[in-house]
Specification:
Elements: H1 5-23, E1 29-35, E2 38-44, E3 52-58, E4 60-65, E5 69-72, E6 86-88, E7 92-95, E8 103-108
Antiparallel strand pairs: 1-2, 1-4, 3-8, 4-7, 5-6, 5-8
Keywords: Signal
Signal peptide: 1-24
Amino acid sequence: MRAPRSSAALAGVALLGTVLTACADNGSGQLMARNGDRLVQTLSNPPTGTCHRFPEGVTHVENHMLSNIVLYTTPDCTVPKGGESTYLSQQSADEVVRSTGLWRSFDFAQE
């Protein structure tokens, strides 16, 4: 007995929705980045699993998300030779130290 086409189409749409939802994990909350007193960027619920580049270097980051992040001085979330990254826990803030340079990107810490 064949299933009606509408039932098959509905099942296909439901499966596609489930797959797309599983691929689109987002950090829950907001991140604010400043350069001095000037707001550079505000992100709400940014996607996880990718590097996020700030539009310009920032000196202060407020992490109001439910996830921990790692800040980098490079635009591609890599640690330069002799450099370091900065771990910023959820619901906290940090300011850059002059010797490290400006932060240019972040990604989510591996939990």
